[in-house]
Amino acid sequence: MMSTLVIYFSQTGTTRAAAEKIAEVKEADLIEISPEKPYKMSYWKTVVTSLKEIVTKARPELAMEIPDIQKYDRILIGCPIWCGVVPNVVLTLLDALDLNGKHVAVFTTSGATQPMKLAVKLKKLYPEVKWHRPLNANGVTEEEIRNWM
Ligand SMILES: Cc1cc2nc3c(=O)[nH]c(=O)nc-3n(C[C@H](O)[C@H](O)[C@H](O)COP(=O)(O)O)c2cc1C
């Protein structure tokens, strides 16, 4: 039996709901990414903040312990799509994890954007990882989750 960890970031709860569903179906442990400075702000303030972070390649501080992922074979990373990409705070965590040789995939929620492009970027940023197909978790069904990874 593969041992699986779901790690997710969520500003407004949509990705959290998807992450909980995925963790249940995959019988996985679940961890939330919590930023030092929570994104408790309006939509447009978040857009401005996120664009700034993207341009400056920021790695916002975390208010959490870096999880020990040694015992997991599979890591599923969930986040909202922000301005077409993964929120920088998720990259802070990915930088801190030793994902070398792990089976990893990303799932996203969004208004409409699909995760394929950002998954390609992640593959370039973290080439040591065994990346799997990303999952669009907008309204994801149990069957889609079972057929994934
Ligand atoms: C800063 C920001 C940027 C966003 N950029 C996109 C985008 O590029 N494409 C898209 O389809 N949705 C975009 N959205 C919508 C979110 O991805 C969507 O509402 C998501 O499900 C929110 O997840 P959460 O509730 O877990 O935070 C953006 C939202 C925010 C706040």
What fraction of residues sit in β-strands?
15-25%
Q: How many whole angstroms does the radius of gyration measure?
A: 14 Å
Classify the helix fraction into a percent range.
25-40%
Structural class: alpha/beta
Count of discrete domains: 1
> Which series of helices and strands comes N to C?
EHEHEHEHEEH
Heterogens: flavin mononucleotide
What about the largest sheet?
6 strands, parallel
Number of helices: 5
From the N-terminal CA to the C-terminal CA, the straight-line distance is 13 Å
Uncertain runs are none
Structural topology:
Layout: E1 4-8, H1 14-25, E2 29-32, H2 43-55, E3 74-80, H3 88-96, E4 103-109, H4 116-125, E5 130-131, E6 135-136, H5 142-146
Parallel strand pairs: 1-2, 1-3, 3-4, 4-5, 4-6
Bound molecules: flavin mononucleotide.
Flavin mononucleotide is lined by residues 10-16, 43, 46-47, 50, 80-84, 109-113.
